[in-house]
Hints:
This protein is mainly α. The protein has helices at 12-25, 28-39, 43-54, 60-72, 76-90, 95-103, 117-125, 128-131, 137-149, 154-166, 174-186, 190-202, 210-222, 226-236, 241-257.
Amino acid sequence: xxxxxxxxxxxxxxxxxxxxxxxxxxxxxxxxxxxxxxxxxxxxxxxxxxxxxxxxxxxxxxxxxxxxxxxxxxxxxxxxxxxxxxxxxxxxxxxxxxxxxxxxxxxxxxxxxxxxxxxxxxxxxxxxxxxxxxxxxxxxxxxxxxxxxxxxxxxxxxxxxxxxxxxxxxxxxxxxxxxxxxxxxxxxxxxxxxxxxxxxxxxxxxxxxxxxxxxxxxxxxxxxxxxxxxxxxxxxxxxxxxxxxxxxxxxxxxxxxxxxxx
Length: 262
């Protein structure tokens, strides 16, 4: 919907539609609209323009500036994309952003008490030094994922679980990882459910619990996560060959049709 008669700006759906035209069709007029809206301080436009600029090597610094502006205005998706950019720098997969960030590293968001109760005890009580090592890219990635997760961004919570498990940006901590995986699972992320099932099965960061492991495996499969469907098929193959066959077929179809969904 376009701007209303009262002079209000476009809504989020309208901005995202224009952003799609700019990114997928290379529509110059659409990109100009995005720039105009972003200049007016609209967080969704800042986020979408930042995402567009991230795909252009010569505009990485501006992309990160726009994403940070939107994230600081409370846009969880912008915070997630900014975290992704910093993780790319930390892993060496985003050298263009690394060069840009080296000249102007922004201040990390202040870590507050987590709003997600499943993960709050670990992250809120840890000293700052254990959460962040200054403004290193890995620490910045953690902080911005945290900012997004605090706004119930399921994939950001998943990423915090992975970072804590692997020791990226924070010390390796299996218990913290499991708490964030549980938080993400409760928000409906099938990948997190699958990893949480494994954590309960192996006792990684949580007590071994076969029943909870099975519960989260079933939940992940119910959410059509291909690895969960495949593992569940293997688990029931001896007792229910017909169901196993259906699960394997479903896993194959979802791998083919939803390869970038998770």
